[in-house]
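Continuing the series of single-chain predictions for the mutant panel. This is the parent chain; the variants come on the following pages.
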Amino acid sequence: SGGDPGVYPDLLALMDAIATWRRRFPSIAKWGMCTNGTPFLNREKFEALVRSALDNISIGIDSVDPRERSKPLSPVGVEGTRLLERFVTPLAQAWRGRFIKLDVVFYGDKRQTLNVIRAGRRLGINVSVVEVNGVMANVTDQEMRNLFLELIAETAAEFSLEAKLYKPLNEIYLFDRAEQTPIKFYQDHCRDRDCGHCRKLHLRVSPTGKGWGAVPCFLQAQSRIIPLAVDGRMSAERFEDAIRYNGRGPSWFAGTPYEKPG
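Parent structure:
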């Protein structure tokens, strides 16, 4: 994760190496990838992914409407229908028994998001829906909140699902009767400053001009990072700092050794 792994120059070697790493680190139970899927329209990359030892993948698709990009707000990309037909569907057929999930960002268009949910349900794969951050939306906070709750209710009614609160994250999931293949809905934590829950979901690591760095509050403090390397070598102490300060919120850097940028 962090930038699309599919564009990593050594992707093919990386995919082949995962089987060895799984044997070396048996205590790590989950080996996965987050991608927008576009790089895997390349046949060689797709085949490397299929034969890899990864056991789960999350694919970001916000629209499968005809003639619309999979990420409609992006100036670049491919049509969602093309991505669904040429990547997601073949992967679902090849990866039977492994975990595939569609990650959908809800921008206020219930029909658009429901169409992605329907596509996922037809393929028998999981779907998660994330409410767009309030600072990016073109509607007011309350309008977006109401639309998101309406989306949850309409999805539950269409697929005869039961809404249950997942207390550890304070989020609503929709379950079928067997409590399998839930549809997960995540309300906007950043708008509510729900930092305590955010830290349970994310520890973001991103490339910077000085190497890899941890971003304890991605939205509000992107200019503030914890560099993870010291003298060119990854530092366990810096990772400990990243974990300690993750989820403190927009002022995470106050009172820390990283209070001053750089």
